Structure formats: structure tokens, C-alpha cells
Amino acid sequence: MKRLQLQRWSGSVLSAQARTGGRLQQRLYYAIRHQSTASPAAPAGNDQLVKKQPQAPSISSPHSQKSRYRLPSPPVEAARESAKLAALHARLYLPSRLPLETLARSLVHPSADPNPNFNNESLATLGHDLLTYYASEHLICSYPRLPLTVIFAAMYAYVGPKTLAAMAREWGVESVAAPGGEVDPGYLQFQRLAPGTDVNPETITGTERPHDDEPTWRKSVTSRVVYDNEYGDPVKGPVDPSELAERDAQTSQGVTVEEANASFVSAVMGSIYLHAGRPAAKRFFEQHFLSRHLNISDLFNFSQPARDLARLCARENFEAPVARIVSETGRKSRSPVFVVGIYSGQDKLGEGAGASLLEAHFRAAVAALKGWYLYNPLDVRVPSSMEEEGAAPWKPVHVDLGEVIV
Amino acid sequence: MASCLVASKRPLLALPFFLSSPCESVVLDLRRNQSSYRRTTQRLRVKPDASFGSSLIHTQEDHIIHNPPSSAPSVYLTPSKFLPSNDVRKNLRTAPANSNNSEELPPVVRAPSEKKYHLTPSDIREIRRLRATDPMTWSRLKLAKRFECSPMFISLVCETSPQKKEIQKRVLEAVQSRWGSKRRMAREDRQLRREAWGRDQ
């Protein structure tokens, strides 16, 4: 597959200030945003990544420092002066093609700067899509039999907002007390929520799901793929352009630290994709996200494992599962231990230990079901590996009936 | 080797016990404990596990000692029965298993009951009629005994009246109201432990 020329496109995500002579300059609204009193350079070389502006003398002048107070977020020129930003760039081992200006922009949440040319909303949207795509293809190809609810939980664990916020904290990203143009661009800029605000509204209304207003109706797990987000949580449907202003008013009230941090990590992913290309983005994902240990066997919760196992064996034409006592000790004592194995014919499916025969049987059935669900094929290849140059021909991944439906 | 020595010594130690059984004081005096250094070290001299290997053989070459503690098998090791037919590991594992097919399987926890399928539609109509006319007498257990099926099957066939459910609920509440704090807490803990089984904790 041919690699795409991303440098051409990435010009559109760079801010208007980095690209001189853009049509945005003609708008009156943005007129305030020009700190530099120097005349803009000739509009040449739009495909160049970062147009190195001539160091305007007014940047260091006290007049310019004052004008920064009027800005909602730090100006683009400040990115080159920030030690924090350079340190973050080096610490994350980001590709050198990713300029500091983009990194500074990915640190600006829309609640701090509503202007889409200066905040990280577009980068975060792109990065979020990439993260969820890479995480879901990894999960589905490595564990092809996982139940849908476990996939949702694992997705949340890999790329959920809590994980992203924890990663931003580990990367050493600090957040500002209040956003503004005068602060160091190495800080995460966002408007904080007022104390006492309810951050967890009980029900989310206005989803795309039909009969959304019926609280007692059953919501099937499969329908969550279609109507809900990648973690299986209800999400608001697409907003009309007329209601956009209302939504913007809500974000201007402030966001949680978690949400702002998560948007920053997604935006870094998106900017790596735009500036350094797909292989670098995938490498970044593998090094920072897949390297985090997630024990998928902890995400299961069974209520009737023996029944599920019997259904599974009947479906796959195995002999009916039989529980057998492998070993026991202290049957008549206060704390006995039984080890029960579940056998299908001559083969042992699972083994569990417990203080009663009932518990050991239950645990053995859970172990057997986990053995089924956590099947991991050899030589797993994900669809995105075909984007590499010289990739071997694609072989279809393992697909079977998977989840036991009772 | 050590166990053989102990076994051979036992009759000698027990000999005075049999000889002087009428006199208890003599027996107590003659019985000896193992509080001597030599006997203790002799009994603590346990043969090392085979996986540790003999140091005499492997003096020259380096080797890895793998002697894990006994633990539950990992759930990430898929049982060979659950492996799909195109997986390489399936054939690798089943080859040695076929050789010793005659090995005895451990005893079952509960003998699986044969399903009889003996009830006719008229029987089921009778079950429903009895349950509807006199739900207090004809409980699930009694119906199961009479028709020689499981209580589970009775619950599949018919449902009790709402009045009976209400009465049962009140009886349960009356019983639970007499529980003290200790018993109530113990019951709740039991329920929580049971829920933890499903999460494998």
C-alpha cells in the first residue's frame, strides 16, 4: 500500500498564525489574535510544515507581553520559548517532525480557547478514532472469542478517559489554574469546573437510540455496538448546527481534569499521525498503550457458569461437562479444601479450588469458561499491519461462534 | 532412604510398649521424644526435588531450576478440547494423551442423572391444574416428587399464584426480622463471597 503524502494535509491543522497569508486573517474576529505587528511574509510554501516566522522584535517587547493577557490561550510563537514543552517533547521521544507548535496546540482544550484553529478538538477527534481503532483491532484479533461486554470493558481499560488521564499524569503534564495567553504553553490549558458541579448526570438523554425515553425497556448488548460509544456507554447523538452554540456554552463552563487530560493524549496521537505518518502513530500506540498490562481474565463476571458451560459443550458437540473431585483435604474440618476439575469425556476443561464442593465446582466452571473465551491464536496479525510496506498476503483472522448465549 | 530407616525403627521403638502394656508408668518412661539434635536433623534431611537436578552431574554446565509451587492452571492456557481444529497446538498436545488413555478419572462430585422424558402432555396439564387449584399444598418439591421430575422442570411448566408469592415473601420477612445483627451480617457476607466466585476473586 502506498504511503500517503501527509505533509500536504497537515498544513490545514496547523494554526492560522503558523501559516501566513491564510484567509482566516481577513476575518475581523481573528484580528485580535495577531500579536506580531510585523507585516506577514509572502504567502509562499503552503505545503511546508512550519513556516518559520521571522522573529518579530515585538514579541519580546513589553507591549506584546501585555497583549498576551487578552488572548485565551498562549500564542504560537511562545511554543519555541517554553522549556516545559521542549522537555515534554523529548521525554515522550516524539518524532522530530512533530513541531513544538502542534504539541502546544494539543495542550489547549476547547474550554480554554473556543476557536477551533487554536484548540485541540480536531486533533483529539482524530487521535481518539485512531486509538479506538488500534485498540479494538488488537482485542478482536488477539482474543476472537471475547464476549461483547468484556470487549467494552477492555476498550475502556486501554483507551478510556481514565487511562488517558493517568497517562498524561505519568508523562508529567501539569495543568494551569486558569487558562490565558500569558501562561507557559507547556501547561495543559482548560477551564476548570466550578466546585460543587455535578459531573455525573444520571441519565443521558438525546441519544440516537429509538425509544430512548423508555427507561424500563431492555437494551440488548448487541444494540450497544450501533447506538452507544466504543465503551458501550450511551452517548449523545449528532447535534444540529443551531444547537452548537448551546453546547459551546456548556463547555465554556469548564470541564473535569480527566476530560482535559484525555483530550490532550488523544490530540498527541492525532498530531503524530498527521506529522509523522501512520507507522509512527502505530508505534506510539504500541509503546504507550499496548505496553500497559491489562489482565483480561479479571474483567469477567459470571452468574451461572455451570449452565453456560453445559450450553457451550452442547453447542460445540462436546460431551456434557462432569465435575470430578481431583483432590480434597479436611472434609470434616473447619476449613476444608476441595479441588474440583470439570471434565468433558477424557479431557479436563478447567480446575478450581474452594472451601466447599459447591464453590470449587463454581470456580472450576468459571475457569473452563475463561479457557474458552481467552483463546489466543498463534501469529496474530491485525488488519492495520497490511499498511506496512512489503507485508505478507493477508490471511483471515480466526472467527467462530464465540460467546455463549443462553 | 530416610523413610525406610524410620519404618525399620518403628517396631523396635514399639516393642517395649507391647511388652510392658500392663504397667503404664513404665511405658511413659520408655517412650522417647525426638528432642535430640541427631534425630531432628535426620528427619529434616529431605531429598531435594528432582527438578533441582544433581549437582554432581551438572557441575560444569549451567542449568535452569524450574520448580514452581503447586497452583491452579492459568486460564490463558486454552484446554486442547477448546482449540480450533486448524490450531497447531491441538495436535501437539493430544499426541501424548492418547497413549495413556486407560488412566482412571477421579470420582465425580455428583452422579449425572439420566433424563427420562417420561411426562406426557396430560401429566403437564395435571401439574398445572394442581398448582393452580391448591398452590399451598402443591409446592414445587411435592409436585416434583409426585411426578418424578426435578423442581426445575416444574418451574418451567407452571408458575405459582401471586397470592402464594406474597405469602412466601411475608413469611421470609418475618423470619428475617428475628435475625440479630451477627446472623444478618454473616448472611450478607456469605452472599458477597458467593458473588466474588463469579469474578474469580
TrEMBL record, chain A:
Bias kind Polar residues: ranges: 55-64
Region (Disordered): 39-75
Location of the RNase III domain: 85-173
Keywords, ordered alphabetically: Mitochondrion, Ribonucleoprotein, Ribosomal protein, RNA-binding
Domain of life: Eukaryota
Family stated for the protein in its record: Belongs to the ribonuclease III family. Mitochondrion-specific ribosomal protein mL44 subfamily.
Single GO BP term: RNA processing
Localisation per UniProt entry: Mitochondrion
Annotated PANTHER family: LARGE RIBOSOMAL SUBUNIT PROTEIN ML44, RIBONUCLEASE III
Entry coiled-coil feature ranges: none
Protein name, entry field: Large ribosomal subunit protein mL44
Database matches in InterPro entries: dsRBD_dom, Ribosomal_mL44_DSRM_fung, Ribosomal_mL44_DSRM_metazoa, RNase_III_dom, RNase_III_sf
Pfam families linked to this entry: DSRM_MRPL44
Cellular component GO terms, alphabetical: mitochondrion
Organism of this sequence: Aspergillus ellipticus CBS 707.79
GO molecular function, one term: ribonuclease III activity
Record has Ribosomal protein as a keyword: yes
From TrEMBL, chain B:
Record field: compositional bias (Basic and acidic residues): 186-201
GO molecular function terms attached to this record: structural constituent of ribosome
Pfam families: MRP-L20
Gene Ontology, cellular component aspect: mitochondrial large ribosomal subunit
Stretches the record annotates as Disordered: 92-111, 179-201
Source superkingdom: Eukaryota
UniProt xrefs under PANTHER family: 54S RIBOSOMAL PROTEIN L20, MITOCHONDRIAL (PTHR28266), LARGE RIBOSOMAL SUBUNIT PROTEIN ML58 (PTHR28266:SF1)
Protein's name in the database: 60S ribosomal protein L20
Source species of the chain: Aspergillus ellipticus CBS 707.79
